[in-house]
């Protein structure tokens, strides 16, 4: 198919398809002698995956990294999308319930818990959505936990990140930032799952998804999620 035919089929503009080619996200299957970009069935499937992941709010660079990961497969990518969309829907449902309650009871009925009640679930989803059936997720799933332990650990993790965000150094490769990334890695290993450098590198992308960015920036201030992701990449070479 030509780029024009792909554009008409998918609804993606020709300009956007050319941008995807420039950044290495979706390259044409071949270019004709006349210079026309041509796409086969495999390229269309990749575009479909890209559009699905875009609907979760993932940035293009994160999608490119995910698709390039050696362990990437259609099933794992769909699991990631399902998990992220489920988290977003749950948060929206909670917000709707709160706004309806405020309509009924008035603005004096304030409830701040909704802004933090999905943090622990985010931590668990972080392992499952990013690593699926990898040893990291199996480690998390196999560890015995007391009731409420995940929630307490999730709150402690967010408090740790919040403290870092409020006093973060000027550069993500500063010694203080490197030290915090290692502290974060050890905390995750101690309380959730074995956080190898490979797993840690994957968390950089996860922390920049909308759900995680919202929570992390709320805890540590605007820009904390992006700063932490870059600090992780400085440590892991990602």
How can the largest sheet be summarized? 2 strands, antiparallel
Radius of gyration computed on alpha carbons: 20 Å
Shape: globular
Helix fraction bin: 55-70%
- Side by side, the strands of the main sheet go 1-2
Q: Which structural class best describes the helix and strand composition?
A: mainly alpha
Strand content: under 5%
C-alpha end-to-end distance: 35 Å
Count of distinct structural domains: 2
Low-confidence stretches: 117-121
Outline the structure in words.
With 238 residues, the chain is an all-alpha fold. The protein has two domains: 3-54, Multidrug-efflux Transporter Regulator, Chain: A, Domain 2 (Orthogonal Bundle), CATH 1.10.1660; 64-236, no CATH class. 68% of the residues lie in helices and 2% in strands. It contains twelve helices and two strands, in the order ααββαααααααααα. It has helices at residues 3-10, 14-22, 41-54, 60-68, 74-105, 119-131, 135-142, 149-166, 175-191, 197-207, 210-220, 224-236; strands at residues 30-31, 37-38. The protein has a two-stranded antiparallel ribbon. Helix 6 (119-131) crosses helix 8. The protein is globular, with a radius of gyration of 20 Å.
In short:
With 238 residues, the chain is mostly helical. It is built from twelve helices and two strands, in the order ααββαααααααααα. Helix 6 crosses helix 8 (149-166), helix 8 (149-166) packs antiparallel against helix 9 and helix 9 packs across helix 12 (224-236).
